Every structure is written in structure tokens, then in C-alpha cells.
């Protein structure tokens, strides 16, 4: 009896999981399908699944100057993430393995910077950017994205650093390593999966960031999300074009995510102790 | 040469109730000696070891290795190698790299590093595993890598912090003998921390017993067993623990039930604490001299049986070693005799110190 209820329960759970998964993946499937449609097929109601696929939309968006936006996004994402790691790794080390009296205050301060809604800061940020001549400039975005991701990255990486066995660090010190050697040759290799996970999150957040980008950039420094809204015009929605652009926009993140998945978190500090 | 000397060394953890984890430790470990630091958890034995390693500050007193004062030197300048309880191997490095790490940091030539690593691997039976990562090794192999990492450096002192506590019982006994043999062969001064008194007794040239950060006694295993300096050492060394009974003095002895026990030393009138090891007692026939014991628990170990019971007419618990083949039954009253009054230890019940200590 119990075994049967169990099996029934498990079956229901599996069904439910599939349902939720489909619900989540449906918009993505819809986007992929629509991107291969002619604009006419895309506009039908109810949507049709019988259509002749075309690459027309992809050529159109490339013609409309998608590549410079893609380049901007890539540049901003890579540099802001690099900046986050450059500043965040030492900070996370200090806040986890070399704590001082004010460590918890510093951590609280980092977190507090995430409490202000971006909207509340956009006018001062706009004016500052204007005064510095950084409007419509990728460097403004790089600095802002780094600032936006840094607190999160420090908190995340700190938790990975905390998992590093203290005895392993002590062993390195006894083995004759000075702090930089301990950091680069013992601690970093062990926390590398954690740092990779953090970097991935920073990449995703920078890549998809819209609010700063739409307010502080225009034709010169615009990023992919800014390009995407260009399809929502007064002449109407171009569903097929928008889908094609969105697909191209999400591909890099999907690829990076898929690569990272194989290296992430697994095996962190395995075999160091016991 | 590499002798290690603690001179009034203390480690004080500050705070509202500052804790003296190690309190005025005076201890000298001779060149080539194997010294075991033993004590219950929280006794400061690991802290004392870590002070020698430079991983823990020395707040008072000093520590010297050889003829150098190392009190405030960083670990890397002390010419020591340490084996950690958790082994603390570098998980991203192969066994070879783990062992070579310290040598490379010293800037030793690659060929020489390889030669030394291979020599150590040979000694520890690790040659087959040199290119494996720690996670692909068993617990015993990891333990040997941790040892290997220490011996390739040819340090003046080995510091070992409960290196066997993560091994299963059988492997522990085996590794215990191997480490002791290895140390004799290398002749390197060694300080070894353990809470296991069997390890302490079998491995150490001398054993230092710590309690609450204070050194209780430092002596050879035999001496520690035969003439413990106080009731703590008496109770800590030996398994099962020594029977300790506080009894009124009666003339030149004490009365243990009906048995009059003549004490081997002169005592003042009043009370004394007598200590009798379970093996100094034996079960005898009813007609013989002895005291009566009501049996409450029998631990059968095969060759021996330990009989736990209560002294007739008193609340004191007594453990007696008996022949494993004919153990008494629960609830039975048995007669217990003392083998030799010379084996009775006498302590001052107030201070806990041995009376008649030389």
C-alpha cells in the first residue's frame, strides 16, 4: 500500500516537475521558433507552428547594426567582470581569512550599497557622467557594472574562501610560503571553481543590465539590451526580428554558462582534509 | 643540534575571561628525542605544539630550537615540518607536487627535488601514487603523503598534531609502529601530540602530560606509569584507570573493607588517597585475605576480564583485572586480594600530589 502511494506520489512529482520546466522553457522555445519566422507568420493569432523557416530576420538585424552593440556588450562585460575579480578577490580574502575588528561592519557596508534602488541614483549618476564627459561612453558602464556586482561578488567569494581549510594554509606557511605564494599557489587554485561561479554571475548581470545602459548610453556605447528595445517602435512590434535579436543576445551567455557548468563548485577542496 | 626548549612559554587568549591555554610551560626536548604531549581535550597540548611551529603566538616566555631563539620567528624560518591532524594536503597538487612544494619554494634544483621526493616516496611506499591527486588516495595513503611532505624537507624538528586520529583502528596501530620506526631511523627531534595514551606510551621516549595548560609530569612511559606525580597523571595514564580511594589512615596503613593495607610510605594521621591499578588486584578464594566486592559489570576482553564493582559497605567503585576464562557473574560477591603493597600509590587528598615522591 505504502509502496504504491509512494510510487503514485513520485509519479505526480515527476509530472509536476515537467510542467514547471515546460512553463519556464516555453518562452525560450517560442522565441527560438519565432526568430525563424517571417514577420507575417509571427503576427498570426493564434500562433502558427506551420511555416517556412527563414534566416531573413537574422540578416536584417545584422544589417541594422547589431554587431557594434554586441561588441560594446562584450567589452563592458569582460572588463567590468575583470575589474570585479581584481578588486573582489583580495577583498574576499581579507574579509574571510584575515579578519580584523571591523570585518563585519565592512561586510554590512558592502551589502548596504545594494539596498538603494538604482532608480534613486540614476539622476546623480547621469549628472556625474555628464560632467565627466562619460555620457554614451562604455567606460561609464564598466565602472558602474563593476560597482553594481562587486558587493555581491565579495559576499559570494567570501563564502568560498571560508571553506578553505585553515590547516592547509598553515601547512603552506610551515612549508615556507609567504603570503603571495600562499594566496596564488594554494588558496586560489582551491577556490577557483567558486571564483568561476562568481565571475559567471557577474557576466550574466552585466550582459543583461538594461537600466543604466538605456539611460546613460545612446548610439555610441549602447549595449545589446538597448539594441533590443529598438524593435519596440511606434510603427508596431517586430516580433520575429525581436526574437532573432534576443536569441543572438542570449547565445553568448548560454554558451558561457554551459561551459562553466562543467567546472563549477564541484570538488571544491576535495581531498585536502581527512 | 636541534633540541627544543620551552622556557616559561605561555599562550594567553585575551578577552573578558582571558584563558591561559598554555601556562608557563618549561620543557626541554633533547636532540633526536621523541616527545609525546598528551592530555585530555582542552589541555593545551595542540596549542603548545603550534607555539613551537610559529602558528600560535608566544605571549610570555620563549621557545628556542637548537641554539636559536625562535619565539617571534615566522614558521618558515624555524626549520620545522608539521604533520596536521587533517593532513592538510594541497588538493590541486599531485602527491609529487605536494611533497616537492617546500623544496621548490626553497629554490632547490629540479633534479635534486625529484631525487628527494622519490627517496621519501620509496621510504613511505608511495612510489606508485606519486602522480595521483589526494582525492584519489585512501586515508592511510594521505596520511603517508602528509608524513612525506614533512620528511623530504629534512627539518631539525618534526611537529605532529594527532596524525593518526583519522585512521581506523587497525591502520592506526600499524602506522603508529611505522612512524616510531621512521623517527628512530631519521633521528629527528619530534614532538607528537595525542590524546591517546596508548600512542603516548608506545611511541614516546618521554611523555609530557598536560592539564589545563599546565605541565603535570614529563617522564619516560615506565616512570609515568610506576610513579605518577599526582592523582591526575595516575588516573590519566593506564587503561582502565587506576582505582583511587580516599580513606582514613589507620596506624601505618588504611583499611580496604576487611583488608588492612600497609602503605609503602609514612603518612600523617588523617586521610590519604590510595591508588591501586586494576592489575595489582586479583580475585581469590573466600578463605584468603582480601576485601569483598559486589560485581556490577564485567568487561570481557578475551585474555583478561575487567570486573567493576562496589566495595562492600562503601560507595567506592573498584576495577579488578581477572582471568578472562573464568569471570565472575553479575551481582556475585567476590573476594579481592592485593598482589603487593609495594604497588600501592599514595597521594595527598588535598593537593593530589604523590606522597613519598623522590
Helicity level of chain A, as a percent range? Answer: over 70%
Number of helices of chain B: 8
Low-confidence stretches of chain A: 267-274
CATH topology of the largest domain in chain B: Rossmann fold
- Largest beta-sheet characterization of chain B: 6 strands, mixed
**So what's the CATH class of the largest domain in chain B?**
Alpha Beta
Average pLDDT of chain B, rounded to a whole number, is: 92
Sequence of secondary-structure elements of chain B: EEEHEEEHHHEHEHEEHHEEEEEEEEEE
From the coordinates shown, what is the CATH architecture of the largest domain in chain B?
3-Layer(aba) Sandwich
Strand content of chain B: 25-35%
Q: What series of H and E elements makes up the topology of chain A?
A: HHHHHHHHHHHEEH
Superfamily (CATH H level) name of the largest domain in chain B:
P-loop containing nucleotide triphosphate hydrolases
Count of β-strands of chain B? 20
Most residues in contact: chain pair: A-B, 23 and 32 residues
| Uncertain spans of chain B | none
Rounded radius of gyration of chain A (Å): 24 Å
Number-wise, the strands of chain A total 2
GO molecular function (chain B): ABC-type transporter activity; ATP binding; ATP hydrolysis activity
Protein name (chain B): Multiple sugar transport system ATP-binding protein
Domain ABC transporter (chain B): 4-237
Pfam family, one (chain B): ABC_tran
Describe this structure in words.
The complex is a heterodimer of chains A (274) and B (358). Chain A has 274 residues and is mainly alpha-helical. Chain A has two domains: 2-57; 61-261, MetI-like fold. Chain A is 73% helix and 1% strand. Chain A contains twelve helices and two strands; from the N terminus they run αααααααααααββα. In chain A, strands 1-2 form a two-stranded antiparallel sheet. In chain A, a hairpin with a 2-residue loop joins strand 1 (232-233) and strand 2 (236-237). In chain A, helix 4 runs parallel beside helix 7 (138-162). Chain B has 358 residues and is of the alpha+beta class. Chain B has two domains: 4-229, P-loop containing nucleotide triphosphate hydrolases (Rossmann fold); 236-347, Nucleic acid-binding proteins (OB fold (Dihydrolipoamide Acetyltransferase, E2P)). Chain B has eight helices and 20 strands. In chain B, the strands form four sheets. A six-stranded mixed beta sheet of chain B has the order 6-7-8-3-9-10, sandwiched between helices. A five-stranded antiparallel beta sheet of chain B has the order 13-12-11-14-20. In chain B, strand 11 (243-250) and strand 12 form a beta hairpin. In chain B, helix 2 crosses helix 3 and helix 2 (95-105) runs parallel beside helix 4 (139-151). Chain B is elongated. The relative contact order of chain B is 0.12. Chain A binds chain B through residues 165, 167-168, 170-178, 181, 186, 189-190, 267, 269-274, and chain B through 53-55, 74-76, 80-82, 84-92, 101-102, 105-106, 133-137, 139, 142, 149, 153, 166. Chain B: GO terms for molecular function: ABC-type transporter activity; ATP binding; ATP hydrolysis activity. Chain B: Keywords: ATP-binding, Nucleotide-binding, Sugar transport, Transport. Chain B: Residues 4-237 form the ABC transporter domain. Chain B: Pfam families: ABC_tran, TOBE_2. Chain B: This is Multiple sugar transport system ATP-binding protein.
